[in-house]
Structure formats: C-alpha cells, structure tokens
Design a protein that fits this description.
Keywords: Membrane, Transmembrane, Transmembrane helix. It contains 15 helices and no strands. The chain is an all-alpha fold. It has one domain. Helix 2 packs antiparallel against helix 9, helix 5 runs antiparallel to helix 6 and helix 6 crosses helix 11. It starts with a helix and ends in a 10-residue tail after the last helix.
Length: 386
C-alpha cells in the first residue's frame, strides 16, 4: 500500500516527461565521459602516445560505422516482415520493441561507463576496449531513443514538444559535470570512482523505471484509447524552438520523407538516425586528437610528456626543469584563443554553408507531412492516446 500511491503518481506523468527523462539518464553519464576519459587515461593511467592514437583510430572507425549497422539491424525486423505478411507491424508494436530494447541496453550502458574508472588491463588495451564497449551501448540507446521520437508522434507540434523535454532533461543532466569537480582528483581517484558508481546506479535504475512506465502507458493505450491524453500547451513554441536540439527534429522529417518516397509500410527510424551519425559521430573522435595536436603545435605543451623522475640510488634529486620564460605566456594565450574561438567559428561557418543546401522545408515539408499522415493513419500510434 505504501508503494501504491507513488506508483499511481508515476503512472500519471505525461508521456513527454517519461520520454524526456531518458535523455537525463544518458546525459549524466555521457557528459562526464566526454570531459574525463582522455584526462583519466593520459594523466592517471599514463597511456602512451602511440596507444592513445591507435585507440582513437580504431574508435573512429567503430564509432562511425556501428550507427548505421545497428540501425539497420534494429529496423530489419520491422521492414522484413512486410513481404511475408503483406502488412507492416503496427506502430504500437514498433514502439514497444524499442522501449524493451532501451530497458535492456540502458543498464548495460551504465555498466560499460564504470569500466573506464578502474584499471583492469594495460592502459592501451583498456582504452580501446572501453571506448568500443561504451560507444556500442551508447549507440543502441541513442538510436532507439531518437527513433521513438519519430515513432511516437507524427505532427511537428508533438515532436517539438517531445524534443523540448529531451533538451530540458539533457540540460539537467549536465549538472553531473558541475558536481564532478568536487570529486575529481588525479592523486586520489577513489572519491571520483565512488561518484561515477553513483551516477551509473542512478542511470541504470532510471532506465529500468522509465521504460517500465513507458511500456505500461503504451499497453494501457491499446486497451483504453482515452487513457490519459497528452497535455500540449499551445503557448512548446518560440521558446521550444530556441532551446531544443533541432537536428533531431530535422532527422525525423527525413524519416517521413524516406517513408513517403520509398512507399514503406513502416518507417526506418533507427536506420536513418544511424546514417546521420555516420557523418556526425567522427567529430567525437577527431576532437581530442585535433585538440591535443593543436595545443602542442601552438603552445609547445605536450600532454603526453611525463615529468622527469628522480635518479634511482642517487642522493641528489633530478633537477627541476627551468621555469618557462615570460615570453611563452602570449604564445599560450594565442594557442588557447585558436582552440576556443577560431575553431568553433570555422565549424559554425561550415555548418551554415552546408545547411544552406537543405531543401526539406516549406511547401515540400508540408507535402511530405500530409502524405505521411495519410499512409500511417490506419496503423499509427497517436501520442495523444498514450
């Protein structure tokens, strides 16, 4: 009886909140991973330069190609059923399959996150295995989470509402980075390990709870079409458009266009998100490689250089390296300026030029949306009934 009231309250949460909370459980892990994994292996585990570059190169290949591969494997079970049965799976069945996959892979993502912070193999080997294992589960979670955005809702209004909550929870998840500064200590790593263990436990349990709630709501919608309606506030839109990660919404439009152009009976949501990641994910690998190289090139500071050790059996310690002359300070500031200002500006200009060629908007987008609504009307899962 004590658990009945909280569970009833959780069942009453809007679908947008439950779906958006999945972004929180991803974000609290991934932000810490991005900030600390290079520093951990370089400064704490003392990985060599060669092992670091080999690991990042293999990670670049794996990080690029596992997205379309996993996306194709995920959607194949939905698309391959059409020739045998003559009709595609219902959208409700697709949503339930993706929710079950999130319930399995989310806790495994949390476990793979923990593998970074305890040395259990030679640094180079652990670096390679941890990166590939973590990114594999992250890809599975990301693909199913993003594909749900295209499968749960068809209208741009509902998708924007769902994506807004994802952005809101992602922003909340970034607080884990601010909390991590209180525990990060290269000399004593035990407190940071305990912090990461807490994050992983919270994330894993959150995935289990959120997916259970989402699954029950979808199943209840199949039995009670009016249970309960999704509350949509018409006042999700200028503020929503300004704060959401809009690339996800653009990809959902591409999912609609692919379904219409190829006359599919079920959208290949995960496959399309995987193909987009094939282009965007390599940047995650190039960033630390390019950053460490540019820092060394412009400032002369090599992250892989270890401080000299004292001579074994010598009464006199190894002499301290001379202090850098004052003339190096402007060079360091100039190098940091290039990394923090010029590189982002260059990337932004390249993105603006690329997006200027994008044509799926305006009248063409309205036409695609209308045809998608007509094609999916008999089997769609209306988010307002979830």
């Amino acid at each position: 009886m004590g658990l009945g009231r909280p569970w009833t309250w959780l069942l009453g949460l809007p679908t947008t909140v439950v779906y958006g909370s999945l972004a929180l459980f991803i974000s609290i892990l991934h932000n810490v991973f991005l900030l600390y994994y290079v520093d951990t292996f370089v400064s704490v585990y003392k990985i060599s330069r060669a092992a670091f570059w080999v690991g990042e190169t293999v990670f670049l290949l794996w990080n690029s190609f596992n997205d379309p591969l996993f996306g194709w494997l995920s959607d194949r079970q939905f698309l391959s059923s059409q020739p045998r049965s003559g009709t595609g799976l219902s959208s409700r069945a697709v949503v339930l399959a993706r929710v079950r996959a999130l319930g399995r892979h989310g806790p495994l993502l949390a476990l793979s996150f923990l593998a970074f912070w305890v040395p259990w193999a030679p640094a180079g080997l652990q670096f390679l295995l941890c990166l590939c294992l973590y990114d594999g589960f992250l890809t599975l979670v990301d693909l199913h989470h993003h594909a749900l955005l295209a499968d749960l809702a068809l209208s741009a209004h509902d998708r924007t509402h769902l994506n807004f909550y994802c952005s809101l929870f992602s922003a909340a998840g970034s607080l884990s980075v601010f909390a991590s500064y209180a525990f990060w200590n290269k000399e004593d790593f035990s407190s940071f390990r305990a912090f990461c263990l807490t994050l992983a436990a919270g994330s894993g349990l959150g995935f289990v709870g959120a997916t259970q709630l989402l699954r029950q709501r979808v199943e209840m919608a199949s039995r009670e079409p009016g249970y309960p309606d999704l509350a949509v506030d018409s006042g999700n839109r200028v503020f929503t458009e300004g704060t959401c990660k809009l690339l996800t919404l653009v990809v959902t439009d591409l999912v609609d266009e692919d379904l219409v152009l190829n006359h599919r009976k079920q959208a290949a949501s995960a496959l399309l998100f995987g193909m987009v990641a094939l282009v965007t994910k390599p940047g995650q690998t190039f960033a630390p490689l390019l950053g460490t190289w540019l820092l060394c090139f412009y400032t002369g500071h090599d992250l892989f250089q270890q401080p000299p050790l004292a001579l074994v059996g010598s009464a006199q310690p190894w002499p301290e390296p001379p202090a850098p002359p004052p003339a190096q300070a402007p060079v360091l500031r100039q190098g940091c300026f290039y990394l923090l200002v010029l590189v982002p500006i260059t990337c932004a200009l390249l993105q603006l030029f690329t997006w200027s060629k994008f044509t799926l908007h305006g009248r063409r987008l309205h036409m695609v949306k209308a045809q998608r609504q007509n094609l999916s009307r008999p089997q769609t899962l209306d988010i307002k009934t979830v």
